Amino acid sequence: MDMDRYIGRVLDDRYEILELLGTGGMAVVYKARCHRLNRLVAIKILRTEYTQDEDFRRRFHAESQAVAMLSHPNIVSVYDVSTSDDADYIVMELIDGITLKQYMEKKGVLNWKETLHFAIQIAKALDHAHSRGIIHRDIKPHNVMVLRNGSVKVTDFGIARVMSESNTLTKEALGSVHYISPEQAKGGRVDNRSDLYSLGVVMYEMMTGRPPYDGESPVAVAIQHISGKPTMPSVINPNIPGGLEQIIMRTMSRQPSDRYPTAAAMLVDMDEFRKNPAILFDYNNPDTDMDAATRMQPPPREEEEPAPRKPIAEERKSNPPRPRSDKPHPPTKKPARRREVIVEEKEERSKVATIAIIACAVVAFAAIVLFGIAIFGSDVLQSNDQLTVVPNLIGEIYDQDGDYGEILIRVGNRKHSDEYPKGTIMDQSPAADKKITKGGTVTIVISLGPEPQEKKMEAMQDVPEQQAKEFLDDMQLGLKILVHTENSATVAVGCVTRTDPAEGEVLQNGQTVHLWISTGPVRKTARVPAVVGYSVDLATKLLSGSGFQNVEAVPVDSSEEEGTVVHQSVLANIEVDVNTTIILQVSKGNQTSTPTDPSDPTEPTEPKDYVEKTVDLKFPEEVKKDGVLSIWYGTQLLEERDVFAGTLGIELKLKGENVMVFTAMLDNNPTTAWTFEVDFTDLKPKDE
């Protein structure tokens, strides 16, 4: 379409085209004047390739008419829709501002206050549209206009629906792939929660400066939306508050059922976070369930902030439970049932008495053991060859890389002291000459020297978070302490990595001090390649190329050609930590039968030296919903077991020899898989 050919023309004897404002995938936008109402407007004119499709024009007109019924301060108003031989166009409110995308490119990473300010307005626009049955389908920074007064308006409502039903896929449409929901990427059913997912992606980008997924092609990005797991925003930007991160990640859940059910529910949490930026939400607690929260209050009016939800404690105070009456119930007319109750009460009292006797016996035994430990030391429980004597460390200069023999040293705190020079150990626990288990920990307190007249920030690296806070509180300067988290490969989890102000800087009364706390090293994962059937050299190279360096080859009897991998300890195509040890069973080429499944008790060729062991399998985290747990050994499925929400672990019986690595997985989803080792060497081979 010749974009200049409309400039100077008057459409429908009403709209005079003044200048070009911009171009999009399906239309060109012009600035125009409405002569009937004498006002400036924006006109979006369909490109020629779309005007030749009658079905597209019909849907475009119907959808635009529906959007014209929307009226909200955060939605660009649609004034008129025209489908004629002259042109197909939409007349809209003219916005004096820039797109949110341009704003983000100009400012880079936004702070959380700006992010929340924009997100609340977008959510209000979505709530209004969803309540009228209109889903946007293309929420992205390019479709959000930022006005000079800081307010935002969402544009292109309903247009994406027409585009999604078109067979034409333009470059502009592909540009939306960074923000589409998983169900859109799969071509599935779309509802209001799809818009909320896209809003979550926009919030993620505002807080981190980049979308959660990127790739060399739109297809690669779409696949990540379907099966990927985004990096937590706080890893990229440690300054993001925990509550806001929770809102973003819930909104970006892959399953629509795990997201907020409505924009109104999301607004409730955003409003609570706005009032209390330190809040953390408990989505697993039914008392704070989003659905319940939204049912408890009417939906917010369009021109107002959503009504604040009371804290749970306040709700319970304002609506106290009705007290139970202390008056006895009227006598029953069923004496037979009363006799049964009396008998049950006697039996219950008898059970209670028995339990009490057992409990007393247990307590008495524990007291005897503790008395023995107090009098004779821990020798009553352990032999001398398992124990070591704690040395006297007080007065010594602490050396982080020093050799302290058979004990481990943990720095518990640092304190000012007039008695001990800076850097020396001024206290320890356990005390000198006590006996502890070899390899046990001795916690020390390090002197900071005399307290200076001018208080400065001390070296806090490697100090546990709680001790660092206590030290700063002891300065009595009224310091405000803000805690952030970041990854660290050198500082233990839960300890300080750095501070602001830095070491040596003077501290002022009421100053804000930032502590960065280690969350441990960045956990790098990779997908395990399938290497069964390859030579051991090639298999090792494939694993190494995927990032797995801890590869061990174990020769086994097999009918396969010598040097061929017949089994891999970690299931192929699952995502695991690159530090995972992968054991390859490599054929010796001297047997006519192949390795068998160690878990199948009916297998007639099962090796005779396999033994059975009961394993208490702990899950990496609590199971979120009912499902099926599968146990694998390499590519062999050993067992499937139902697990339920809240499960922390189960008991398994596994067969094997030496040390074997198994894989556990929930609902056949590779992203939930983890590996665990079982040591069979402490058991005798089973009888033949």
Describe it for me?
With 688 residues, this protein is α+β, with helices and mostly antiparallel strands. The protein is 27% helix and 23% strand. It is built from 17 helices and 28 strands. It has a 6-stranded antiparallel sheet. A 4-stranded antiparallel sheet has the order 25-24-27-28, with no helix packed on it. Strand 8 (144-147) and strand 9 form a beta hairpin. The radius of gyration is 34 Å and the shape is globular. The model is unreliable at 162-175, 286-346, 373-381 and 593-606 (pLDDT under 50).
What keywords describe this structure?
single chain; 688 residues; alpha+beta; six-stranded antiparallel β-sheet; four-stranded antiparallel β-sheet; 28 strands; globular
Write the layout of secondary structure elements.
Layout: E1 10-11, E2 15-23, E3 27-34, E4 39-46, H1 48-51, H2 54-67, E5 78-83, E6 88-93, E7 97-99, H3 100-107, H4 112-131, E8 144-147, E9 152-154, H5 159-164, H6 171-174, H7 182-185, H8 192-208, H9 218-227, H10 233-236, H11 242-251, H12 263-275, H13 290-295, H14 312-318, H15 335-376, E10 387-389, E11 408-415, E12 425-429, E13 435-437, E14 441-447, H16 465-474, E15 480-486, E16 496-500, E17 512-518, E18 525-527, H17 536-545, E19 551-556, E20 565-568, E21 575-577, E22 582-587, E23 611-618, E24 627-633, E25 636-643, E26 649-656, E27 659-666, E28 674-679
Parallel strand pairs: 11-14, 15-17, 19-22
Antiparallel strand pairs: 1-2, 2-3, 3-4, 4-6, 5-6, 7-8, 8-9, 10-13, 12-14, 16-17, 18-21, 20-22, 23-26, 24-25, 24-27, 27-28
Helix pairs in contact: 4-8, 4-12, 8-11, 11-12
